[in-house]
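Troubleshooting log. The previous structure file for this entry was overwritten by mistake, so regenerating from the original sequence record. Sequence copied from the archived sheet and checked twice against the printout by T.R.
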Amino acid sequence: MSSEHDGKTHAERAALGCTAGDQARLGQSVTPSDSEAADRHPRIVSWQDAFNLLAYAAAFDGRVRGEHEARAWFDALGPSRFKVEDARAAVAAYFKGPDRHRWITPGDVIHIIEEGEAL
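Regenerated output below.
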């Protein structure tokens, strides 16, 4: 589809940023969005988040949990690396599997999430 504008098609003008919409936006500032705006799912960002995950695991295996354990799990999981809901799903998936008789570790959570076994 062509137009009277310098013999270029609409697709060609769009690729060059020459459409009417582009011209209307010319000069408008672009505000970068918050990095979490596209993904509003909470992530594990503190040892308290890791503590909550440990409390969830304790519901399955009765483990003792505290600040030191939570900080160690947080260090192993890495800040903002995983969504809280994915980590909880990984814990639940772990206790449905063949290794449910032993305590879950951060490595188990990472493996389950990365392999997509909890999704």
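The two ends are 44 Å apart (CA to CA). Archived copy saved in two places this time.
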